[in-house]
């Protein structure tokens, strides 16, 4: 095996080795080492960022073109690793209070992150499937991690059953693409489709994108999301809503652009349907939710629809806009979940009802102010930074002659703004509910402040470097400059 190939997968090698070492330490030291392993996991993720190939150059491919170490993969992995590190730190304080923080948690996060890295770098259907299943297997265990909670066990079982169904659909699509194109490589599939799209290849596209749509929880493959988000432990839900979303979206973009590029007009219709269904249902279904985690689940579905607008454009600017959107979305959703993690009663038990936020501005004013920032930013209300990603993806759609799609998406964003504003109204205008218990968690408090500053108007200072980074990343999928 060439040394060059091993150097291109150095982040995955480092995280795999770290996961194995932490697993041995966990077996030897037991659950008392959980917090130490969490910090070691964060160190491993930071180290993986530092050795990332493709950040300062266009990178190369490894293993006979099955794995790409380009700027697109590098950008996606950096954001994924940061989100995973934040999720690890958030879990340490939350599970610590419950007394069931097991040492396997950081190990599972690291192995899931290895799978997500493979998803972002996959340039072959086999690499795609291996990476996706590696992430999914760890996610199934994470969803049911809190064994003393029946809701967590139920969430893990639902996720596993529906995930297995989606994997079967994806695998069937992969088999059709291989059968009708004669190859599993993205480049070879694109060449075969360039000679004309057969009905077999079209069916392969439909089934493959349907399987991937499950992973990003786009409608109508969203059915698992509200139940799993509600039942899983809150730190796990925060993880599901951030890093895996970007990994699946990066994979979706690479498959559609690199493997199915010549068939853009065919798969664009599928993506447009996902956009319309996700933005409409994600906006309407969240209105009557009483649980904050279920509401954020529908918010996730809604935001996935907006991010797909960029992919529907099928251009370099559209893919860059999707990466930009997902980066800011991860900051917004992690910030919101960091506040949900602080929703505990005087006995330290989690409280998840939206009604418990009533009058929060009078009992915990700074916490209320943070939640207001994240809700208004998720709604895309200027001058908060959450407005800009929506503008970028809508602008990419208009530039690709999809003005009507942008108009519909703008209209549905008004629907979703209703339930975000409803939460702010509950916090600032309703009679106070029983106050939450005190929290002294300096690490998560620092992360919360950093997320709030990023999505505040100060975030506009990051437009220049973030735009340059996403444009460079998207260019890796369009070598001809199209």
Automatic annotation (TrEMBL):
Enzyme Commission no: 7.1.1.-
Protein name per Swiss-Prot or TrEMBL: NADH-quinone oxidoreductase subunit N
Catalyzed chemical reaction(s): a quinone + NADH + 5 H(+)(in) = a quinol + NAD(+) + 4 H(+)(out)
Keywords associated with the record: Cell membrane, Membrane, NAD, Oxidoreductase, Quinone, Translocase, Transmembrane, Transmembrane helix, Transport, Ubiquinone
Location of the NADH:quinone oxidoreductase/Mrp antiporter transmembrane domain: 122-416
An example Gene Ontology molecular-function term: quinone binding
Subunit structure: NDH-1 is composed of 14 different subunits. Subunits NuoA, H, J, K, L, M, N constitute the membrane sector of the complex.
Protein function: NDH-1 shuttles electrons from NADH, via FMN and iron-sulfur (Fe-S) centers, to quinones in the respiratory chain. The immediate electron acceptor for the enzyme in this species is believed to be ubiquinone. Couples the redox reaction to proton translocation (for every two electrons transferred, four hydrogen ions are translocated across the cytoplasmic membrane), and thus conserves the redox energy in a proton gradient.
Taxonomic lineage: Bacteria, Pseudomonadati, Pseudomonadota, Alphaproteobacteria, Sphingomonadales
Organism superkingdom: Bacteria
InterPro entries assigned to the protein according to its UniProt record, in alphabetical order: NADH-Q_OxRdtase_suN/2, ND/Mrp_TM
GO cellular component: endomembrane system; plasma membrane
Pfam families linked to this entry: Proton_antipo_M
Family of the protein in this entry: Belongs to the complex I subunit 2 family.
HAMAP family reported in the protein's UniProt record: NDH1_NuoN_1
Membrane-spanning residues: 6-29, 36-55, 75-95, 107-132, 159-181, 202-224, 270-288, 295-313, 319-341, 366-385, 391-422, 443-463
EC supergroup of this enzyme: translocase
GO biological process: ATP synthesis coupled electron transport
Membrane topology: Multi-pass membrane protein
Compartments where found: Cell membrane; Endomembrane system; Membrane
């Amino acid at each position: 095996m060439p040394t060059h190939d091993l150097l291109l997968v150095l982040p995955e090698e480092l995280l795999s080795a770290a996961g194995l070492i932490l697993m041995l330490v966990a077996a030897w030291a037991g659950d008392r080492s959980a917090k130490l392993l969490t910090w070691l996991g964060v160190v491993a993720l930071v180290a993986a960022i530092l050795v990332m190939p493709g950040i300062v150059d266009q990178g190369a491919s490894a293993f006979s073109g099955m794995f790409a170490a380009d700027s697109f993969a590098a950008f996606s992995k950096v954001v994924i690793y940061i989100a995973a590190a934040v999720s690890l730190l958030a879990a340490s304080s939350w599970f610590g209070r419950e007394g069931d923080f097991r040492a396997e948690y950081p190990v599972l996060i690291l192995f899931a992150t290895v799978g997500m890295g493979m998803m972002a770098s996959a340039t072959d259907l086999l690499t795609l499937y291996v990476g996706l299943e590696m992430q999914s297997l760890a996610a199934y265990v994470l969803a049911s991690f809190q064994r003393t909670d029946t809701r967590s066990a139920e969430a893990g079982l639902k996720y596993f059953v529906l995930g297995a169904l989606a994997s079967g659909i994806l695998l069937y699509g992969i088999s059709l693409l291989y059968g009708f194109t004669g190859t599993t490589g993205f480049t070879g599939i694109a060449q075969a489709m360039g000679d004309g799209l057969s009905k077999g290849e079209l069916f392969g596209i439909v089934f493959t994108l349907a399987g991937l749509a499950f992973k990003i929880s786009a409608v109508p493959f969203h059915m698992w999301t509200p139940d799993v988000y509600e039942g899983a432990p809150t730190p796990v839900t925060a993880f599901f809503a951030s890093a895996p979303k970007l990994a699946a979206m990066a994979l979706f973009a690479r498959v559609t652009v690199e493997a199915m590029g010549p068939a853009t007009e065919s798969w664009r219709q599928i993506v447009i349907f996902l956009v319309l269904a996700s933005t409409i249902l994600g906006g309407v279904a969240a209105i009557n939710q009483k649980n904050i985690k279920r509401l954020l689940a529908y918010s996730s579905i809604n935001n996935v629809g907006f991010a797909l607008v960029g992919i529907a454009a099928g251009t370099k600017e559209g893919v860059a806009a999707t990466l930009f959107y997902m980066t800011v979305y991860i900051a917004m959703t992690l910030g919101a979940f960091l506040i949900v993690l602080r929703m505990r009663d005087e006995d330290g038990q989690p409280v998840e009802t939206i009604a418990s936020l009533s009058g929060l501005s009078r009992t915990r004013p700074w916490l209320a102010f943070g939640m207001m920032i994240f809700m208004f930013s998720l709604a895309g209300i200027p001058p908060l930074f959450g407005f800009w990603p929506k503008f970028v993806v809508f602008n990419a759609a208009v530039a690709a002659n999809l003005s009507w799609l942008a108009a519909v998406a703008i209209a549905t964003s008004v629907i979703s703004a209703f339930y975000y504003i409803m939460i702010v109204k509950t916090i600032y205008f309703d009679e106070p509910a029983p106050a939450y218990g005190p929290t002294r968690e300096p690490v998560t408090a620092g992360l919360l402040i950093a997320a709030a500053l990023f999505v505040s108007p100060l975030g506009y200072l990051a437009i220049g470097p973030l735009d340059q980074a996403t444009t460079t990343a998207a260019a890796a999928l369009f070598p001809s400059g199209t």
